[in-house]
Amino acid sequence: MYNRYVKLFFHLVIDAVLSGLTMLLSFVITNNFPKENIDNFIYSILFFSVFFITFNYIFKGYHIIWRFAVWRDYLRIVASSVMAVVFCLIVHRVFEFNYSYDFYTVLLFLNAFSICALRLFYSHISNRKAALESQEPTLRGNIMVIGAGSAGCEVIGNINDKKFRGGARVRCIIDDDLNKKGKYVNGALVIGGRNEIVSAVRKYNIDMIIFAIPTCPTDQKAIILRICQKTGCELRTIPSIYQLLVDKNVDLTTVRKIEIEDLLGRDPIKIDLELIMNYVVDKTVLVTGGGGSIGSELCRQIAFHNPKSLIIFDVYENNAYDIQNELKHTYPQLNLVTLIGSVRDSKRLEAIFSKYRPDIVYHAAAHKHVPLMEDSPNETIKNNVFGTYKTALCAAKYGVKRFILISTDKAVNPTNVMGASKRICEMIIQTFNSKFDTEFVAVRFGNVLGSNGSVIPLFKKQIEEGGPVTVTDPKIIRYFMTIPEAVSLVLQAGATAKGGEIFVLDMGEPVRILDLAENLIRLSGFEPYVDIKIEFTGLRPGEKLYEEMLMSEEGLTKTDNRLIFIGHPIDIDEKRLTEAIEEMRNVMYDDNADIRALIKKIVPTYTYSPSKVCTQKSETKEKTTV
Is the pTM of this model over 0.85? Predict the structure, then answer.
């Protein structure tokens, strides 16, 4: 408040001084200076300054943030000057100060011009200062803009306006619309379509390319960006049309660096936020594994939808602590409970369910690292299978309305223990759905970009260290989604489930891991195989060349969301499943037991190499004997 009044006083003093100077200059220019009576001159300056400041205050001229001023704000100064001159003329006539009309015309022009110029100069300096202090990287050098539409026009206009950024120049525009070729947009020439990108970069010595087509289909955007990558230029983009619906301004602050997600070539998932809001609001929601990549994002989006209370349950206290602090800061009114414990601990689960009585449970707690779980299969079963079994049993016992299991595409025809354990989890919840009132569902999706232990953080770390980037096989492919997309699917399932379904995401075309590695190297400013080497290490134990989203016996049903499908429940021999789980319970604490054979009994589609397992066990026994 103090600074506000200081600034107002500063503006008043500057305007008073400037008004006086313009009147003095007007007297000199029109040769009307009152030499005989200097008092008339002093009174005239006083009257005019008071009149201008008064009218400028009435017209809200001192309520403007001039850094963001528009032309209408400068009209307030012109209007204030006009009224001040008119009232000054009236006073002069009353006191018989006889000055020519030329004097008042010059006074009006000089006063309006000088004060507007001062405000414009202040606005320019403020924006230059803000640009220098901004954490956003400054745009410099020769720029190519892709997109000659309204968004591209706004971006070019902002770049041309020096008050936003200095040293940047738009040299050309790329647009596939042939009708725009040869025409100018905000002073920049449209030179042709995407086929001209590479040659135009060389011709115009382009340093940076900005993608400015928010309505462009994601697959086409990915294709164009891959062409741009070949040029070695720095790549930027503006938000998609879905993001611009929230923030409708297109300026240089919205321009961001290209991320690996932009190259996936798949439209983002759109969900019915109102549907989710109606489902979660005023509900007590429990998220197991709430500190993990998926669990923490679940907590963020659930917190946004005003639950009655949110319970974070995780065995790893550091992750739980981080998401707890984040949510407390972002949603101070949220009724948040953070609990530490394991889903393998029946007594701990009983205590939590009996005390908090959750309405909805999102079960994200699990071991998920394929190679590690191959070396520790019994721990996988303890945590994934029996952790799910115990949590689901408590959910049924304490009247949870809906239980949502986080599953994976690796559960389909699994070749590793982690995937097979998730398939058993799916079978458990489908069996429970037929026995209890709680609605049990599963959500199955592919690899999540940026999650803990995923390939992207590994590649980034290897690139930072100078390489090499390690890829298991040049042919290996995977489906990918972002963490928010994965969580959107989970929330959609929770809101629309009837019980027993396995929700599956149409993840578009799979991505070669090698392409992902090469793109990430280029996005980091290096050339693959030149600056950063790529090494092939061979498939790891239990790893497939490709993943599947459905088993052959499962059918697909469409939902209202075109990217989400439902796999129909398959027949499960409940007695056989129960007996096998009990047998598994009896041997899972014996590391020498062949637990993979028991997994095979439950999941016939599970394939593994018994000989390799036996060899590993023999080596373990020999080491133990020595």
Answer: no
